């Protein structure tokens, strides 16, 4: 249960960190809070010759308004996200998802950028990023670029980040006043990874029709997924006449590779997934309608 | 893979050490500092026995490297009691309400409960259960632990302190 030996780097700028990742290639891994990486190292599921620690890197922490969005530095801890009044007011879906991540001791170290870059299919933040159309900022020695969340999660624990790219921040669009948000997940014990879960954002127009919506799914595939077909079917519909159960069924019908393991069969996960989407949809629509 | 020099304040005492990067904070505390109150159960972040305070926040000492604690203040279970040995309110409550049995998980629970009650001074029972969910106990069935944290929150944990 001891990690293999590695060389430790603690750069002070994001450019320096990206430079190290570029120079060291596959033998290096960036470490932020380490709450997923250190267990993998301890169990020797992963071995790296170099770790590039981001703890000293300036400009990676904080929550602020930027161009109408809420920008969160990748190195901001989950506890800091949870305590942020700005996040609670402008990106409530993120605030509501945060207490579901592990335990408070984990959230004190774990970062939003680490969670999204790690891209665990059963994690909350990637699904929230999908549901809200977040934009992910990446930096490499070649420059910086912005990646839409919908193009970011590419497979099992893999993302659109190149080996020399560092996730530096995440921008969350702020929704209009008639919006509602909800996260629902089913886990066997408090703090466990969800067997299935859904993050839902709904915005209604003046007539109570769905102006736009986002449904992020977790625990239901090899990557975090977005239920695009179910969203398209619901958009434009009257919030009162849409059936939450039907949206739940539609969201799950799109999925092609629902996992089956010790915790739940694929069929049970599909059932749970549909229920989680339906519950989250119902709560989000109620909040939007009451707003 | 060169060793790294670190400076850490542990339970109020400044320390310097040269450590291999792969040394976890938990192993540094136990092996280098000789503070064996921090227990290692699972060594991959599940059991919570190794919980310590890092700059005041409860963290798993097995899920970080000692080099990452450079410049930080660490408080272990050995730092919970007062300098004269008087137990903290949480420690008294654990003693008075049978919050421990074999004692293996106790350091992590005491540290977690201390941080939890500082941030949630008036918790509901539900919040206490959630706050303790990151620490596993294999003996007590948790009821004594819940009672102890309830009593510590209510300020009734130190009833028998003079015993």
Features:
heterodimer, A: Uridine Diphospho-n-acetylenolpyruvylglucosamine Reductase, domain 2, Uridine Diphospho-n-acetylenolpyruvylglucosamine Reductase, domain 3, Enolase-like, domain 1, five-stranded antiparallel β-sheet, four-stranded antiparallel β-sheet, 11 helices, B: 163 residues, alpha+beta, Ubiquitin-like (UB roll), DNA polymerase, domain 1, 2 domains, 5 strands, 30% helix
In short:
Chain A: InterPro entries: CO_DH_flav_C (IPR005107), CO_DH_flav_C_dom_sf (IPR036683), Diverse_Substr_Oxidored (IPR051312), FAD-bd_PCMH (IPR016166), FAD-bd_PCMH-like_sf (IPR036318), FAD-bd_PCMH_sub1 (IPR016167), FAD-bd_PCMH_sub2 (IPR016169), Mopterin_DH_FAD-bd (IPR002346). The complex is a heterodimer of chains A (291) and B (163). Chain A has 291 residues and is an alpha+beta fold.
Describe this structure in words.
- The complex is a heterodimer of chains A (291) and B (163).
- Chain A is α+β, with helices and mostly antiparallel strands and 291 residues long.
- Helix content of chain A is 33%, strand content 25%.
- Chain A has helices spanning 14-24, 37-42, 78-83, 85-90, 92-97, 104-107, 112-118, 124-131, 228-234, 244-253, 266-290, and strands at 7-9, 28-31, 50-53, 63-66, 69-73, 135-140, 143-148, 153-155, 158-159, 166-172, 179-186, 196-204, 210-218, 225-226.
- Chain B is an alpha+beta fold.
- Chain B is globular and about 50 Å long.
- In chain B, strand 1 (4-10) and strand 2 form a beta hairpin.
- The A-B interface holds A 1-8, 10, 34-35, 38-39, 42-43, 51, 53, 55, 79, 102-106, 108-109, 189-191 and B 1-2, 4, 20-22, 24, 27, 42-45, 48, 51, 54, 57-60, 62-65, 67-68, 112, 115-116, 129-131, 133-134.
- Chain B: This is (2Fe-2S)-binding protein.
